[in-house]
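Reminder to self: tokens first, then the designed residues, so the page reads top to bottom the way the pipeline ran.
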């Protein structure tokens, strides 16, 4: 039996038209029509970057980045401010953690004994609602706004940065911690609560073993964000690399700016490596 396919019966396969093409184009056009007023309102004009004067100024400033400033005096100052930046971020995250953990535990219905067999009673429900609104208030204002407020209260320096990061990130951590705890498997926690365990025991032995890797990973990620935030807070007088970068930028010292940026990139890479090691250790 001849199994060879005759060329005369081979039919070419033509690409069929995409049935969803019209819907995709309609969606793109609708989004463009909705976004255009926003672009006009924000005066978004990216073509300004291609202006000859802008290109010339950018080229001169970037050319001053090379070579980076590497003298011993400046490197000593740079390392000191880098360590201060890490200290601000770490102290702020510690304060944020101390704020977030009670808020997260108190606002998590999964750890409520009253919600096991029936709907939650009025008082626990009101307390949880109050705690959730507290987290909304804490994270509603960016850390930069908190820093501006605390600079007026405690003066210039790292204290304002620590307080700003601690309060803003306390609300963020509390919200995400609560959501992670709520998304865990309820069976171990409910079994412990039904057998007389307290909320803390149910958290430590029922919920936390499931959520620990995710909680640690998010906490380290927020610490990395806190390092970046502490640099930004330096522009309003909170100290660290940001204040040094602000001074170098105002003086158009490109060599100093490039050195500061290199150290900043190294700090972010280091925090990313620490996060990877912690995730691997808890796997």
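Designed residues (283 positions):
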């Amino acid at each position: 039996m001849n199994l060879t396919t005759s060329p005369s019966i081979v039919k070419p396969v033509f690409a069929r038209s995409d049935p969803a093409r019209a819907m995709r184009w309609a969606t793109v056009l609708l989004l463009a029509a909705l976004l255009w007023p926003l672009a006009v309102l924000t005066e978004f004009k990216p073509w300004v970057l291609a202006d000859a004067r802008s290109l010339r100024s950018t080229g001169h400033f970037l050319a001053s980045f090379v070579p980076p400033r590497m003298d011993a005096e400046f490197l000593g100052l740079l390392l000191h401010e880098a360590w201060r930046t890490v200290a601000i971020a770490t102290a702020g995250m510690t304060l944020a953690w101390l704020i977030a953990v009670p808020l997260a535990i108190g606002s998590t219905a999964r750890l409520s004994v009253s919600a096991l067999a029936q709907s939650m009673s009025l008082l626990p429900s009101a307390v949880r609602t109050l705690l959730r609104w507290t987290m909304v208030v804490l994270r509603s204002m960016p850390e930069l706004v908190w820093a501006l407020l605390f600079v007026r209260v405690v003066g210039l320096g790292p204290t304002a940065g620590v307080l700003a990061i601690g309060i803003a990130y306390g609300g963020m951590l509390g919200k995400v911690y609560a959501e992670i705890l709520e998304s865990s498997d309820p069976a171990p926690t409910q079994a412990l609560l039904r057998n007389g365990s307290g909320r803390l025991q149910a958290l430590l032995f029922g919920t936390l073993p499931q959520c620990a890797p995710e909680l640690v990973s998010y906490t380290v990620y927020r610490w990395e964000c806190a390092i970046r935030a502490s640099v930004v807070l330096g522009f309003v007088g909170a100290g660290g690399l940001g204040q040094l970068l602000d001074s170098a930028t105002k003086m158009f010292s490109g060599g100093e700016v490039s050195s500061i940026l290199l150290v900043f990139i190294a700090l972010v890479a280091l925090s990313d490596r620490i996060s990877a090691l912690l995730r691997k250790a808890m796997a």
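The mean pLDDT is 80.
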